[in-house]
Amino acid sequence: MTLKLHIGKSLKKILAISLIVLILPVGKALADDPGTGDLGDPDDENVPIDGGISLLLVAGAGIGARKLYQYKKNKEEKNSDLAS
User: Fold this and answer.
1) Against a cut of 0.70, is the pTM above it?
2) Of the four listed, 35, 48, 51, 64, which is most buried by Cβ atoms within 10 Å?
């Protein structure tokens, strides 16, 4: 008796892509040079924060505003449907 799993084509693609994404960085990490072990200046407390964090904050605020707009719009539509 054999066990047959019926998995959709899209799920197979997602699993294949996920497997590739998870395995490729491991090969790169193993291929990197271990370095000298120098941690830099111990008195240097500055953390390099570039414009990427500000872009993520702006994108998050935009997504939140859009979700809030859609929520209010759907709520108004439901109320107008109930009133009529």
Assistant:
1) no
2) 64
Residue 27 phi/psi, 5° resolution? -65, -40
The position carrying tokens 């939140």 is 64
Q: Which tokens in the block code for residue 13?
A: 């693609």
7: CB partners within 8 A, 6+ apart? 15
Taking the C-alpha atoms of residue 53 and residue 65, their distance in angstroms, rounded to an integer, is 18
Residue 15 lies in a domain: no
Tens digits of residue pLDDT in 34-67? 666 666 666 666 666 666 778 888 999 999 999 9
Tell me if 68 is assigned to some domain.
yes
Report how many domains make up the chain: 1
